[in-house]
Write a structure and sequence with these properties.
Layout: E1 2-7, H1 11-20, E2 26-31, H2 34-44, E3 48-52, H3 60-69, E4 78-82, H4 87-92, E5 97-100, H5 105-113, E6 126-136, E7 139-148, E8 152-156, E9 166-173, E10 180-192, E11 195-200, H6 205-216
Helix pairs in contact: 2-3
Length: 217
């Protein structure tokens, strides 16, 4: 199985990139500093390293330089991301590519598949027209749910949402016994002119089974 090492000292970015890979057939490892990343990489020898720049102990540029100089690790592709533009520093340190944050799900997966043969599970989706509520920034916003799967939903009219924003979600799906309320959490993984894709991060197994039954009916 493909092994991906994600390195970032911000839990929000770790959670977002793990959510991007929720449909991928891979083993995800994480680290929060450059030193941790070196330790994990030496232990598990990942197929790809996704590295942040701004981290304590050792920043991403220095970590990329050490990866490139270590015989047992130098073959591993390193992709560095940051909200600051240090492209030249990153490439000079030996990274294969630099990408600016924030990055959405499609761009992220395209980037990963450039370096490893990542297989993505295609979850069945169902087009719907249901009301939905999203909780964010201390308020509840009503919106319209336009499709649903066991991995996430697509919402319209949800207002201005940012990639990586964490949301509380509430919607109902029809069942023979009556409507089943789904309450869970998600992260915004895609933004388009039509609305926002939201990946589930805290869906219970019971809720997943109800959604699967509804989608496959």
């Amino acid at each position: 199985m493909i092994k991906v090492l994600i390195v970032d000292d911000m839990k929000s970015f770790l959670d977002l990139e793990r959510t991007f890979l929720r449909r991928a057939d891979c083993h995800i490892f994480t680290a929060t500093t450059g030193l941790e990343a070196l330790k994990v990489a030496q232990q598990v020898h990942p197929d790809l390293i996704l590295l942040d720049i701004e981290m304590p102990e050792m920043d991403g540029v220095e970590a990329a330089r050490i990866f490139a100089a270590t015989p047992s690790l130098m073959h591993i592709p390193v992709v560095v991301s940051s909200s600051s533009d240090r492209r030249e520093d990153v490439l000079a340190a030996g990274a294969r590519e630099f990408v600016s944050k924030p990055v959405d799900e499609d761009r992220f997966l395209e980037l990963v598949q450039r370096y490893v043969p990542l297989k993505l599970r295609k979850d069945a989706r169902k087009t719907v027209e249901f009301p939905c509520e999203i909780g964010h920034r201390g308020k509840i916003t009503p919106c319209s749910l336009s499709d649903v799967s066991v991995s996430g939903i697509f919402v319209k009219d949800g207002g201005a949402l940012n990639i990586g924003e964490r949301l509380a979600l509430r919607f109902c799906i029809p069942m023979e016994q009556g409507a089943k309320e789904i309450r869970t959490e998600g992260l915004v993984v895609r933004a388009t002119h039509a609305g926002h894709g939201i990946g589930f991060t805290d869906l219970s197994e019971g809720a997943r089974l109800f959604i699967q039954e509804f989608v496959e009916a």
